[in-house]
UniProtKB/TrEMBL annotation:
Keywords: Cell membrane, Membrane, Transmembrane, Transmembrane helix, Transport. This is Plasma membrane sulfite pump involved in sulfite metabolism. The chain crosses the membrane at residues 90-115, 136-159, 171-191, 203-226, 232-260, 329-351, 371-392, 399-424. The keyword Transport applies. PANTHER family: PTHR31686, SULFITE EFFLUX PUMP SSU1 (PTHR31686:SF1). Residues 1-26 are annotated as: Disordered. It is a multi-pass membrane protein. It holds the Pfam family SLAC1. It is found in: Cell membrane. The keyword Metal-binding does not apply. The gene is SSU1.
Length: 473
C-alpha cells in the first residue's frame, strides 16, 4: 500500500506527541521516526486550487479560533448601532443588517471549525496545547452572546413570546459552551501547556471573559423574557449572578498578573499591541452585566410582583430586597466602569506611543486578525456606559457612550475592509499553531499508519530471518 508523501498531503499539522500504536522493537522505531517528526515546510500554497472540496478543506484548516474575534467585533458593532445613545431609525436598520451579517459569519466559522477538528487527525490536541491559539476558543461564546442579545433586541421585540423562549434556549447552549471553555482552559493551562512568565499575556483573559459576557447576556434575556414568564426570568437572573462570579474575579486575578509582567518586561511587541485593550473586556462587560442584573431584579419586583428570593410573600419586603440588590449592583458597576476607564486610557496611551514610533502600525502591511481585539473590548465599555447613562440619567455619560460607540463603528469599518482585502489576496488564512508541522486527514493518517506497520513488520521479519540465512550460507 502506497503511503501519501508529505509533499502530497493536503494540509499541515500533526502534534509532535500524537499517539501511536503501542508496539515494540523495530515497529515502534519505524513509526516514531516516520510519522511524528515535525516538518519545517510551510503549507502547500496550491492546496486551495485543487478543486472546491480541497479549497474548502484548506480554508477550514487555516481558520484558527482567533477568527471568532471577527464575529465578536461584528456583533458588538450591530448592538451599538441598534442601541446608539442618540438613536435614529436608520441606525437601527444598519444594526439589523450588521446583525444578519454576523449570523452568517458565525455560521461559516462554526462549520469551518467542525470540519477542522473532524477531518484532520490530532488537530484539536495541537490547538489545545498551543499557548496562544487555545485561548481564542473563548471568543466563540462571546461572539454567540452578541447574537443572543440581538435576537432579544430585534426578534423578541418584533415577534414576541416564541422568540423569547428561543433566545433563552440559545443562551443556555452558550452557557454550557462558555463554562466548558473557561473551566477547561484553566485546567489545560495548569496541566498541559508550557507557559513561562514571558508568555503571560492578556490573551489569558479570553477563555475567562466568555462567562462574563454570557452572564451579561443572561440579564438581557431575562429582561425580555419577563413579560411572558417572570418566574423563568428570575431563574435566569439568579443563574447569571453565579456565572458572573466564575468570570469577573478570576479575570481580575489575571489582570493583576499581567500588570506585574508588564511592569518588569514592558508592553507587548507591536504585532500584539492590540491585546492591551483586552482587560477592558471583563471590566466593561462586567459592569454592564451587573448593572443589567440589578435592573432586572428591580423590574421583576416592582413591575411583575416577583421577588428575587422565592417564598417571600410580602410585596414591600420583596421590593426592599430588590432595591438593596439594585443599589449594590449599581455600586459594583460604577467601580468596574472606573477600572475600565483606567485600562482604556492606558491602552490608548500605549497604542499612540507605539504609533508615534512606527506610523505604519495601522497600515495594510501590518494588518492581522489580532487588530479585531480593539473592537469588542471598547464596544463592551461603550455598552456599560450606555446602561449607566440610562440608569443615572447622566448627559455626560451619554456623550461618552456616543463617542465610544462611534469609535467602535469606525474601527469596525477599518478592520472589516482590511480583513476583506486580506481574504481577497489570500493572506487572511494563517493558523500559527500548525505552522511548520505535517497534518493529515484521518483517512490519510490511517493509510500512513497501516503502511508503516506493514513496512516495520517486514523489516522485523527480515531481521529475524537474517541469522538463519547467514548459517545456511
Amino acid at each position: 500500500m502506497a503511503s501519501p508523501s508529505p509533499a502530497s498531503a493536503r494540509t499541515i499539522a500533526l502534534p509532535s506527541n500524537a499517539p501511536t500504536p503501542v508496539l515494540s522493537g523495530p515497529v515502534t522505531a519505524a513509526l516514531s521516526d516516520s510519522t511524528i517528526a515535525p516538518s519545517t515546510r510551510s503549507p502547500d500554497p496550491k492546496a486551495a486550487r485543487r478543486g472546491p472540496v480541497a479549497a474548502v478543506l484548506h480554508a477550514a484548516l487555516h481558520t484558527p479560533p482567533a477568527f471568532y474575534a471577527i464575529n465578536m467585533g461584528t456583533g458588538i458593532t450591530s448592538i451599538l448601532l441598534h442601541r446608539y445613545p442618540y438613536q435614529g431609525h436608520w441606525l437601527q436598520y444598519l444594526g439589523i443588517a450588521v446583525f444578519v451579517l454576523n449570523v452568517i459569519i458565525f455560521a461559516v466559522l462554526t462549520v469551518s471549525n467542525v470540519l477542522r477538528y473532524t477531518v484532520y487527525h490530532g488537530l484539536f490536541r495541537t490547538v489545545a496545547k498551543h499557548n496562544v491559539a487555545s485561548m481564542f476558543w473563548g471568543c466563540m461564546p462571546m461572539g454567540l452572546s452578541t447574537i443572543v442579545n440581538m435576537v432579544c433586541f430585534v426578534c423578541v421585540e418584533a415577534w414576541g413570546e416564541n422568540w423569547a423562549y428561543a433566545a433563552l434556549g440559545l443562551w443556555w447552549v452558550n452557557v454550557v459552551l462558555a463554562v466548558l471553555v473557561n473551566f477547561g482552559m484553566i485546567f489545560v493551562l495548569f496541566t498541559r501547556q508550557c507557559q513561562t512568565p514571558a508568555s503571560l499575556a492578556p490573551t489569558w483573559l479570553l477563555p475567562i471573559v466568555g462567562t462574563v459576557v454570557v452572564a451579561a447576556s443572561g440579564a438581557v434575556v431575562a429582561q425580555h423574557l419577563a413579560p411572558f414568564n417572570a418566574g423563568l426570568a428570575r431563574s435566569t437572573i439568579l443563574c447569571s449572578f453565579v456565572i458572573w462570579g466564575t468570570g469577573v474575579p478570576p479575570a481580575l486575578m489575571v489582570i493583576t498578573l499581567w500588570i506585574y509582567r508588564a511592569a518588569l518586561q514592558g508592553p507587548p511587541a507591536p504585532a500584539a499591541l492590540a491585546s492591551v485593550f483586552l482587560p477592558l473586556g471583563p471590566c466593561g462587560q462586567g459592569a454592564f452585566g451587573i448593572v443589567s442584573m440589578g435592573v432586572g431584579v428591580r423590574t421583576l419586583a416592582y413591575t411583575y410582583g416577583v421577588p428575587v428570593i422565592p417564598g417571600l410573600t410580602e410585596a414591600e419586603g420583596a421590593q426592599r430586597i430588590a432595591d438593596a440588590m439594585y443599589a449594590g449592583c449599581m455600586l459594583t458597576g460604577l467601580v468596574l466602569w472606573g477600572l475600565a476607564l483606567l485600562w482604556y486610557t492606558i491602552a490608548v496611551a500605549l497604542f499612540v506611543d507605539q504609533w508615534r514610533k512606527d506610523w505604519r502600525l495601522l497600515g495594510p502591511g501590518k494588518f492581522s486578525v489580532g487588530l479585531w481585539a480593539l473592537t469588542f473590548p471598547i464596544g463592551v465599555f461603550a455598552t456599560s456606559t450606555i446602561v449607566l447613562a440610562a440608569e443615572l440619567r447622566s448627559p455626560a455619560l451619554k456623550v461618552i457612550a456616543a463617542f465610544l460607540s462611534a469609535q467602535v463603528i469606525l474601527h469596525f469599518l477599518y478592520v472589516g475592509s482590511m480583513t476583506l482585502w486580506a481574504w481577497i489576496n489570500g493572506a487572511l488564512y494563517n493558523a500559527p499553531e500548525i505552522a511548520g508541522k505535517d497534518v493529515y486527514t484521518r483517512s490519510d493518517w490511517s493509510r500512513r499508519v497501516s503502511h508503516d506497520l506493514e513496512a516495520a513488520c517486514e523489516a522485523e521479519a527480515a531481521a529475524a530471518a537474517a541469522p538463519a540465512a547467514a548459517r545456511k550460507a
